[in-house]
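To: structure desk
From: M.T.
Subject: fold request, one chain
Message: Could you run this one when you get a chance? Sequence is below, nothing fancy, just the single chain.
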Amino acid sequence: MSQPVVESAPLVATRSSIARRYGVYALLLFVVLVWGGSFVAARMILSPEGAHATALSPTLLAAVRFLLASAIFLPLLARQQMTEQRLKLADLPLFLLLGQLGISVYFWLQYTGVRLTNAGIAAVLVVGLIPLATLVVARVALRESLGARQVVALLLGVVGVGVVAGQQGIAIEVHGGFLLGALCLVADALCFAVYSTLVRGLRARYTPLTVTGGTMIAGTLGLLALAAFSGDWRTLAALSAGQWLAILYLAIVCSVLAYFCYNTALTRIAASKAAVWLYLEPVVALGLGAALLGERITLPTVAGGLVILASLYLAQRG
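Reply: Done. Structure tokens follow.
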């Protein structure tokens, strides 16, 4: 009688490692698809079509979005605090800091930069610089390895983002407001890079649910403070049903699910390798804009998307 085949421990470990790696890739793909779609959803609320349509200010939209998301996390965190791991008071300052870096200050800088510059410049400076900034910050703070192939991949991704963003119109000006907006966008990319790097330290002590919910609630507090001075909450009553669906998409799918998946991915992959996936956001945004809003996609846009895919392939192999 033949003996059963027993797989060796190294082979089983290799298969398990491959499964975990592709699981991380699935999480990051979901994140970029969802966050890419957030541009289309936000456009329905910030710049709605129709003479009688109601528009929200960027700060008010961000505050409502994360207020709804925090309302989902609050009972989950409360239950976890009573039954599982408790949040240490010594870590509260770090949660507050990450909440501002990854949410309140991040969105305030981004919206200010977009208002003072244009969409093309914003895409290049924010989406293009986040992976590069994350590479540098992770190298300094976490001593993550830095290879020549990874640097080439990140630079290639910037080129791809520039090509894609060029189809939205890139106009560079020299007046003070434009320069201030560009500086805001650079600072915005740096904020998210620091967030992506420091959040891995919290993950060593807490679950992804605690990290995501805690930082989001902290960031929401900052957004509510900003909206108290710059937003008219009465305009919420005039929003259409479609706009409320877009807000729910931003709150539940983009904020709760996507941030949770991104933080989970950061526990299993280097911050610089996770950030390079963000290069796909403008590609997804333009694709959904063409499918849902009738926007035009040109051959340079397709070429830029292929360059971004090449950079992603190189980064994951580096």
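Reply (cont.): The longest helix spans residues 9-46. Let me know if you need anything else for the meeting.
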